[in-house]
Amino acid sequence: MGLLRSIVRKDLAMDLGTANTLVYVAGDGIVLNEPTCIEIDHEGTPVCFGENAYERLGKTPDGQRVIRPLKHGVINDFEAATALVRNFIKKAKGKKGILPPRVLISVPSKMTQLEKRSVLEAARAADIKDPYLIEETMAAAIGAGLEVFETHPRMVVDIGGGTTEVAVIERGGFVESDSIRIAGDEMDEAIKRFMKQTLGIHIGSRSAERIKCELGTAVSDVSWDESISTVTGKDLNTGLPKIISISAADLRPALLPILDEIAYFIRDFIGILPERVRDIIKTDGFLLTGGGTLLKGIDRYLAQETGMPVCHAPQPLLTVAKGAGLAIENLKIYRGVFSN
């Protein structure tokens, strides 16, 4: 019966992130992981999507541009977002299934009803008949194997590209949740400012993200402090290309103000929890996930700054997509935790 169901319908889950989008196909797992980018021409017609579009950042001919249709987890270009969702769903689904798939999309916890409606309308415009929504922190908890229906509260911190989400989950719902629009994108911008103000060169977003992935650290450690990478930018004095070398230790001061804001946000969130829940969370600590937590040492930094144990998800970039996938695969169990 399960085999027949999988032949007739292949349900999907989508982690529609500011920086990256992942698609999970029921029975197959995560089959797509690409940048949330689309290249369009002067009339707004899509040229290419995902990885292909990202590779053309800063290289497009006149009249074409690469855009990211989401900002801080929210759609800011409806037509581009619709085209991107349609392309990714088609690419992930292939020719599997006879009936249209049910699709579950993860969204930020503090998204307004208007913003949620925008996601649903984009999904329907992309030929998804009955889209479901699930909060990213709930999906992350499921993906990490936490028991979201038990009476023991669990805390999740999800640092993505556009937002940092934090929530305490108990009995299939939220005790409290909150988010700030400070995350991986702000780290990239901080690196660009550091390069400009300290080293006198201008670099693009792709270069900043690459440096963050190669050299970004939250704490000092002999195993990575002396790691060095080269970067090419435009010399602000001469206007000519310039190649410089930079170490992980050199770069860290650029990232610490962003990390401090995230740590303050988490500490402030802990303070508003009911006393019973707060005491449990302070003892148990929290799950740390999301692509922004790939920064080396960020778990140690947040443990130090919050005074709490931190459990870093083993595959933080995949946790939300995996959890949403498990939820759509087990719809009868998890339908109650969806947000629509």
Automatic annotation (TrEMBL):
<comment type="subunit">
    <text>Forms polymers.</text>
</comment>
<dbReference type="Pfam" id="PF06723">
    <property type="entry name" value="MreB_Mbl"/>
</dbReference>
<dbReference type="GO" id="GO:0008360">
    <property type="term" value="P:regulation of cell shape"/>
</dbReference>
<dbReference type="InterPro" id="IPR043129">
    <property type="entry name" value="ATPase_NBD"/>
</dbReference>
<keyword id="KW-0067">ATP-binding</keyword>
<dbReference type="InterPro" id="IPR056546">
    <property type="entry name" value="MreB_MamK-like"/>
</dbReference>
<dbReference type="GO" id="GO:0000902">
    <property type="term" value="P:cell morphogenesis"/>
</dbReference>
<dbReference type="GO" id="GO:0005737">
    <property type="term" value="C:cytoplasm"/>
</dbReference>
<dbReference type="GO" id="GO:0005524">
    <property type="term" value="F:ATP binding"/>
</dbReference>
<keyword id="KW-0963">Cytoplasm</keyword>
<comment type="function">
    <text>Forms membrane-associated dynamic filaments that are essential for cell shape determination. Acts by regulating cell wall synthesis and cell elongation, and thus cell shape. A feedback loop between cell geometry and MreB localization may maintain elongated cell shape by targeting cell wall growth to regions of negative cell wall curvature.</text>
</comment>
<keyword id="KW-0133">Cell shape</keyword>
<dbReference type="InterPro" id="IPR004753">
    <property type="entry name" value="MreB"/>
</dbReference>
<comment type="similarity">
    <text>Belongs to the FtsA/MreB family.</text>
</comment>
<feature type="binding site">
    <location>
        <begin position="18"/>
        <end position="20"/>
    </location>
    <ligand>
        <name>ATP</name>
    </ligand>
</feature>
<protein>
    <recommendedName>
        <fullName>Cell shape-determining protein MreB</fullName>
    </recommendedName>
</protein>
<feature type="binding site">
    <location>
        <begin position="161"/>
        <end position="163"/>
    </location>
    <ligand>
        <name>ATP</name>
    </ligand>
</feature>
<feature type="binding site">
    <location>
        <begin position="209"/>
        <end position="212"/>
    </location>
    <ligand>
        <name>ATP</name>
    </ligand>
</feature>
<keyword id="KW-0547">Nucleotide-binding</keyword>
